Amino acid sequence: METQLNPIPSLAELAAEGKVPEVVFWVGCAGSFDDRAKRVTQQIARILQHAGIHFAILGEEEACTGDPAKRAGNEFLFQMMAFQNIQVLNGYGVKKLVTGCPHCFNTIKNEYPDLGGHYEVIHHASLIQELLDSGKLSVRGGAFKGKKITFHDSCYLGRANGIYEAPRQVLEALDADLAEMKKSRAHGLCCGAGGAQMFKEAEKGVAEVNHVRAEQALETGAEIIAVGCPFCHTMMSDGVKHHNKEMEVKVMDIAEVIGHGLH
Amino acid sequence: MVEQVLFILMLTIGVGFFVRSIGKIRRNIFLGRPLQINDRKPERWKTMARVALGQSKMVVRPVAGFFHILIYVGFVLINIEVLEIVLDGITGSHRLFAVYLGGFYAIAIGFFEILAVLVMLACIVFLARRISGSPPRLSSSQLKGWANTDALLILGIELVLMTALLLMNAAEGAMPGAEVAPFLVSSLISPLFSGVSAETLHWIERLAWWFHAAGILGFLNYLPFSKHFHIVLAFPNVWYSNLEPKGKFANHQAVKREVELMMNPEAEVQAAPAESELPVKFGAKDVQDLSWKQLLDAYSCTECGRCSSECPAHQTGKLLSPRKIMMDTRDRLEEVGRNIDAHGKEYSDGKSLLGDFITEEELWACTTCNACTQACPVNIDPLSIIMDLRRELVLEQSKAPGSLTAMFNNVENNAAPWPFSPSDRGNWRQTSH
User: Fold this and answer.
1) In the CATH scheme, what is the code of domain A138-261?
2) ipTM score here?
């Protein structure tokens, strides 16, 4: 896949030149450090550049939003992280953010305002949908035309914030054959990573959540399981591997699917 | 006259006990922390109309939803006949409404009888579901002891009450020269009474009437001790439900003050906390540390188990069950209430919700996915209780699992949950695959 990127400035670099970007790309920790998620990050950047959007990243000034700390019960650490991030963002006068992580999206959208951080924040699935609708981005089905794709709703995009249609509309723009799992949208099953589960072993049980969810995805007969969250991405990939289907079925982020179809 | 006096006495005692029980539940609920909920009123009324009155979340599961609506509609409308029973009992009249309704009376009673039959049908279906163990969320292995007995009792009592209603009407219709009967459904069972003397029929009718009246008062007094109390609390509970996006977890205000002081010491003077009467707690150890709304949630729960059947942790065999969180909260709250009754408000039995009822293993299994809050037909929020108890474990008792402590350290030192250097955050720009 072509991931040639034009240089991406940091907010500090732009500020030094007296410039302000249209939008700040909030990359998130997984998008910055996880190898698989980094490829998604590159695709999001590529899509933004393709659509002619002037954006910058925070780079080393970006810090964890505090979501895993808060949901693991460490409200102090969460609010300290929020305080730092809000100081940085307000310092640069940031108004609009796009992010590839539903957890960052949820925290900045819902929990930062009360702590003094008021921004317009958008998840990349919604942004891509807007760009497609306004004609700033056009895709062709190509490799995905008629292919069976199923979308796994991440809890923090779907139930948490009611965003169910944007990722589906994006996939439909590729003329893909969208198949729904038996549990989807508001009734979708979690991948098992939320609430800081990503960072600990699961409690004892009879099955792993991601194995069950991957099974539901595989039941649709889809060749591609589309996701919109780096944690879901990891969990679903592991789940598919558990069922020995990683050769036949790919787990891809919405941004990667669209990145393929760009022209 | 004697009958009237007896009835008024029974009614006074029955209603009196009910009011007393309600008073205790009210007191127990307000053992919780204060919380202001009176914003967005039009939206709250609409939500209550849709979710509680309109049963919109019940019908997500069509079979249970359909039969539940039969019982619900039957219960509400048949209560019109209960009003007549009460007035008859007080004034000594017989079928008071017949005088005012004329020919329409028999039609109305016939309609109630159809409802009574549908209620009985629904009760039989619900009993069959519980006894057959399908769906599993209703089987006694998930609902041990009192919870299962309670469920069977409610359905059984409803069946008996509806039977008494039909028998009463059938006896009325079988009486020679009956003025207001026969009625649509009960006339079908009137032949049972053929050959029975008018006097005996009169006694059967009176007996069924008294049984029905006493049964309803008894059932009313059973409610506060049963999950069936949801028929009352569902409405206020939905009115006070969380209208924010489900992903928004409230920021703890006491922590906010502390963090502001820590990060911005100059703010100390203006932010000097107006010392509130309540000690600052960062988490919840026992029911009194929860908000009154969370305690209202517990009393509104009817243990249907839809939350647990949607819960990813529960589905995969972990200990966590959101329904159990709600049942534990109610059980503990009732225990605290009984302690207050017996020993006064300052008494402590040394037990707590966290530890004695809900274990750490349950709490740590939650993925905060909100499937439980989505599934609940009366907008109960088990997740907020889980979060408050987790905060207690981490901030008050320093009992986070080791891997989570490592994650906290990473976030604190590296600004990411993994041990990577912040200076590498932008490196993805150079990587080329």
Assistant:
1) 3.40.50
2) 0.97
